[in-house]
Amino acid sequence: MAVTAELDERNAALAQSLWDALPYRSLQGHALVAGHHLYHVAPIHDLLHVPATYAVDRRTVPDGTIFASRLQHLGIKYGELTEPMPATPIGQIVEADLDVLGEVGRAVWEAVYRTKKPVIAEVRRAGEDAGHRLPRLTVADPEVDALIADVHAETERIWLAPPEELVDLHEGRIPSCAGSYETVLTTLLFVNGETRPLGYACYGGLVRAAYEGMPMESLRQMARILAKTPAEFLGYCGLQTLWAFTGRLFDCLDRIDDRDDFVAVMAHMGLYVNCLGGWNLHLFPWQVGDHLRRVGAFA
């Protein structure tokens, strides 16, 4: 199924960032708390820092509104939303495709919540061929550039296929034996809880702080404070590749004096972690809570 969108000028710089990044493919996700909302991780570094000029309450805008998020998401509202989150619209699904959009939303929910069959979104300019690429930033320092190259290669490898480490974890193959009394669901819950803020708040926040002028020494210090503990815990739970990349990052962090170089490596770490987070949300066994249903609204 396919829908057509029209970009607009409400947040022109964000819309241009999306346009320049096309075409690409990404694992399609669905909101698990907010309501009838589709989103996927977009391979666009600029989304982490390009300022928005216009924000709305997602609940109040028409179905089919498209948003670009500093969480590196491209989102689409297709029905009722409950979360009062400010969002930055960049376009709209055309009126004729709104019924199809609703079908897509329900199908993606079924995939995320129950079947676990990946749905791959394809985003391209109308009338042009499909395709896919992940951006690769470069820096002058050979060791830092080698780290970026390896993170980029690993991100490409797992972008459209689930990482083996996460598959093993979700199937109960945990070399460290994480999970008290041999439980797995508890470990999955904590992995989800650490992965999302590591990408969204830590690495995304560091990129924004760099663009907003935080001194380099403070940036390096905050990177260590924010990234080490969650990355070490995730390594213990099975994400050893992430922990290895983090160790390499810390080894060369003191040599990163150029602000653009700092942004480049943090942006690549952010995209990699956000990709891991997307797969973790897809693989997570949400259906085990099917018996728990909201009772009603409360004042």
Structure report:
The chain is of the alpha+beta class and 299 residues long. The longest helix has 27 residues, at 185-211. The strands form 2 sheets. The chain has a 7-stranded antiparallel β-sheet. It is globular and about 55 Å long. Helix 3 packs antiparallel against helix 7 and helix 6 runs antiparallel to helix 7 (240-252). It has helices spanning 12-21, 98-115, 142-159, 164-170, 185-211, 216-237, 240-252, 259-283, and strands spanning 5-7, 24-30, 35-41, 56-57, 65-68, 73-81, 86-87, 89-93, 120-123. The mean pLDDT is 96. The N and C termini lie far apart (40 Å). The chain has 2 domains: 5-133, Beta Barrel (Cyclophilin); 142-286, no CATH class. InterPro entries: Cucumopine_C. Pfam families: Cucumopine_C. This is Cucumopine synthase C-terminal helical bundle domain-containing protein. Residues 144-283 form the Cucumopine synthase C-terminal helical bundle domain.
Sum up the structure in keywords.
single chain; 299 residues; alpha+beta; Cyclophilin; seven-stranded antiparallel sheet; two-stranded antiparallel ribbon; 9 strands; 47% helix; Cucumopine synthase C-terminal helical bundle domain-containing protein
